Amino acid sequence: GHSYQATLYFSAQLLQGMRIISLLALIIANLLSVQAQTQRSTADAVKWARALELDSLGKTAQAVKLYTDLTNEPAWAYKAYMARSGAYFVVLHDYQEAFMDLAKAMELEPDSIAPYLNRSACYITAKMPDRALSDLDEALVRARDREDSISVFVNQASALFTVRKFDVALTALDKALLLDSTSMAVLLNKATALDELGKQEEAYTITLKLHELFPVDVAIMNNLGYQSSNMKNFDEARSWYEKALKVDPKDAYILSNLSYIQLQQGALNDALDSVERSIRSNPNNSYAYRNAGLIWQAKDNKAKACDAFEKALSLGFTTEYGPEVADLRKNYCK
Asked: Minimal CA–CA distance to 157: which of 145, 144, 166, 146?
């Protein structure tokens, strides 16, 4: 009834993800630094800077227009396709356009790791793990340094998480730890894999140490709540989720997770309030509708429970999480 958070790399930058955790458009600006080069015209440089500024202000459509203009300039085309793909993927959720832009970037710079790494992130978010893993094989060949390799291993784990191959994911993460034993992204994901493999106490120990290092990181607090819940420590789980919500009151996944804990504690009205806030924040999270269905079921409202189960199924719950909701609908919604 609750979901873990892992970490996904996009453009070789750390993004708290997986749920998959929010991919910010600003990462494009961080990745694609502008360097003054004599072959770039002043007008194009101004246009590029303006596009990045618009992106950072959330004016994505205007930024995309400028990126599009720059795709016609040979000196700027690669960076423009990369930036535009990020806008399509992160903000507009138009994966097909993102895929096409990344393919063009690959043609322009076939030895670059970034398009493969970014496309793997798109494939993971679009629930296409096989294609993501194929891209990550290509990315690993192009890895230039330790950080590139770690990014690849973390995304491999994220892709494997989507098909619940946590043991294989753990192998990829251990490879990353050989390169950097202190990486927050790797340790956070390793704790998730260990928890899913039934090693809850080991997972909790790792995550708690991460919390000491990063005390306001929402993903870490969410995972501490998830791991506490798996150990049936519902009061502790609720405390972690409530701490996380003080940092980010509108986090849809944490609100959904909190609703499940409140359901377990019998606080049905609080649970309903939390899950409804979650759905308002992100209406595409199938887990939230699953939890809503369970809450309405506990409140003996069959019609609303079954509506919620149907919505969870329509959003792909079975593909991502298994047959639980389909079984609930079959046995309860007769």
From this structure: 166
Residues 248 and 21 sit within 8 Å (Cβ to Cβ): no
Q: Tell me the angle at which helices 218-230 and 200-213 cross, rounded to the nearest 10 degrees.
A: 160
Q: Where does the pLDDT of residue 18 fall: very low under 50, low under 70, confident under 90, or very high at 90 and above?
A: very low
Nearest CA to 200 out of 168, 225, 175 is that of 225
Confidence of residue 141 (pLDDT cuts 50, 70, 90): very high
Between CA 50 and CA 28 the distance in angstroms is 14
For the CA atoms of the chain, what is the radius of gyration? 21
H runs (alpha helix) in the chain: 26-31, 42-56, 60-70, 77-86, 95-108, 114-125, 129-142, 146-162, 166-179, 184-196, 200-213, 218-230, 234-247, 252-264, 268-281, 286-298, 302-314, 317-321, 324-332
- For 58-110, how does the pLDDT look when each residue is reduced to its tens digit (9 = 90+)? 899 999 999 999 999 999 999 999 999 988 988 888 889 999 999 999 999 99
| pLDDT (tens digit per residue) in 178-208 | 999 988 889 988 998 998 899 989 999 999 9
CA distance 55 to 73: 20
Q: Nearest to residue 6, comparing CAs of 227, 212, 198?
A: 227
With cut-offs at 50, 70 and 90, classify the pLDDT of residue 280: very high
CA distance 228 to 231: 5
Closest CA to 13 of 158, 148, 157: 148
What's the one-letter identity of residue 98? Answer: A
Residue of 281, 287, 208, 268 whose CA lies nearest to 240: 208
- The DSSP annotation for 252-264 comes to HHHHHHHHHHHHH
The pLDDT-based confidence of 26 (bands split at 50, 70, 90) is very low
CB atoms within 10 A of CB 247: 13
Q: Which of 263, 252, 206, 277 has its CA nearest to residue 229?
A: 263
Distances (CA, A) of 268 to 141, 166, 274, 328: 52, 33, 10, 19
